[in-house]
User: What shape does this take?
Amino acid sequence: MVPLYWYLWLGGVVFAIGVFGFLARRNIIIMFLSIELMLNGVNISLVALSHYMQDLRGQILVFFIIAVAAAEAAIGLAIIIAMFRNRDTLHADEMAEMKG
Amino acid sequence: MPGSYLPSSYLPVLIFLVISLVFGLGALVMGGMFRLRRPYAEKLRPYESGVTPVGEPRQRFSVRFYVIAMLFVVFDVEVIFLYPWAVVFDRIGLFAFIEMVIFIFILLVGYVYAWRKEAFVWE
Amino acid sequence: MVEWFFGYLAGAVILLAILVVASRNPVHSVLWMLLMFLHVAGLYLLLNAEFLAATQVIVYAGAILVLFLFVVMLLNLREEIKIRRFTGGWLFKGLTALGIIYVLRRGLEGFRVGFEGPWSIEAVGRATHTRALGQVLFTEYILPFEIASLLLLVAIVGAVFLSKKRLR
Assistant: This one.
């Protein structure tokens, strides 16, 4: 018997690791992967809640999150490629010309 | 009872995974135990059909590959939405059909856009 | 029995997530991520969500990560590997992550599962999982479903525009 809060803990820990990676790394691809980590942490929690509450709506939400993640990856990576062509770097700190 | 559910119909998949892992790792470990190890510089060099390797192994791919991969991702997601639709189609009928026609039409607009922008042309 | 499966999958997911964040080489990060997605799919199976497990493998592991690998290969990363991995003051960032865990802990203390919905394990098993999901998706969630197609349209247009403009 696995209690619900084990799953919620797991989702939270994966989310926190994603937050840490996003804040601490400056390689923009790994920052992107950290966002995917955060989304997966949320997904684990949602599917667990859906299972324990015997309601499929959580899984529908995960389904949409996956679709959003695909769209986000397509556009975000296109932006990374465009930036890399212009600036020749993957270091997020060097992409700061919008900074006032 | 949620929390003690075991997907027992997936037992063959688990057995398959375990066997393939044991087989793959076992082959590597056994090979490592029994093979001769006499390395020298010529032997450790990357194999390029007998020619001396030139340049770096990591070369930049063309961006054209990315456009194709991106279109694949988007239409992959579209197909994922089609699976449950195909399964429940006999229950919901015409209503589901209209929903899906709208869905596919909107994505078709994107397809036509990519086509007109020559995203599929391999120049 | 279930506890052992959960323990293995959860331990593997956390370990692999740490490896994703800590790897020096982005290619290694992406490959650890691939392994992590497969373990998350295993967790979904344990939660009676087999269609989502398949989706996880097909879309996340099969498509999104391939896209990531493509991009890593498009870019030239040799000098990237040599520079410092973490930004300065990463202690503060670690504390931020720990703070999130703390907030979560306080939030979870009082959490109880509310009323139970109609889709018990037996009901899902009788309907088969994909059919149950489709039933809910195509009757209750029509508008989000159509909006998802708009989102994908935006993704196509944006990505084609961003990556094709410069070619000509």
